[in-house]
Amino acid sequence: xxxxxxxxxxxxxxxxxxxxxxxxxxxxxxxxxxxxxxxxxxxxxxxxxxxxxxxxxxxxxxxxxxxxxxxxxxxxxxxxxxxxxxxxxxxxxxxxxxxxxxxxxxxxxxxxxxxxxxxxxxxxxxxxxxxxxxxxxxxxxxxxxxxxxxxxxxxxxxxxxxxxxxxxxxxxxxxxxxxxxxxxxxxxxxxxxxxxxxxxxxxxxxxxxxxxxxxxxxxxxxxxxxxxxxxxxxxxxxxxxxxxxxxxxxxxxxxxxxxxxxxxxxxxxxxxxxxxxxxxxxxxxxxxxxxxxxxxxxxxxxxxxxxxxxx
Length: 311
Known about the structure:
Blueprint: H1 2-25, H2 38-94, E1 101-108, H3 116-136, E2 140-141, E3 145-149, E4 156-161, E5 178-186, H4 192-197, E6 204-211, E7 219-224, E8 229-236, E9 240-244, E10 258-263, E11 269-279, E12 282-286, E13 290-294, E14 297-303
Antiparallel strand pairs: 1-8, 1-11, 2-3, 3-4, 4-7, 5-6, 5-10, 6-9, 7-8, 10-14, 11-12, 13-14
């Protein structure tokens, strides 16, 4: 391109000079007839050609400068994107997902035939603990019951049963002694119903199993007298990874992603909230799910908003 422009400049200069000299040395009009002579027509054609070559040269120069500007803008944009990608990768490395812990709270269906007698038994124990608390103010009650209340008014907010409480060993037909969850994580937003029914392997799959027995029980029961609601809560200190495509590796990968929670055992439970601890005390708490029944199992779907940040 540079060579072509240079040649056109030289050609335009040569034509201008040559036909200018021609105009000086010849008569371009006949003195008698006042008509343009043969040399005049040649000079006129030369001037038109010279002008066209000059305009073409100027146009090519303008097009070249525009291309340079566009190329510079594209290069600056690409450099900015590369710098942003590098910075994002550095931030991802500085904020990895590691030692993932999963905490959850389920509402217990108190009308389930398998639990009616057991929950009535617990209510009786809580009533007894409430009377003892009113009389003594002692929050630690027999049978591993903890009374959660305001110190001044002694208004009771809830009762907690420690995982080691003998009350949890009572006859419950094994309904609440184990909770098993699958957490299927997709890096992008998914249509909720499609995600709930997806059979393909997710970008990240975590397994969580919590029990109320063994050397390290992880489930405990809570009762809120004001709402007459029984809750089953648990935390698993380290979720096991079943599948990992290497796509969801950082806290920065969470916004805009989709998580599907499947309750693997058929229990009379409704998921109230889920807390995912990802690294160094950074938590994502989920409280609003879309609920589906897939293959007779309770399935919950949540899409993290783009502006999601850990707490």
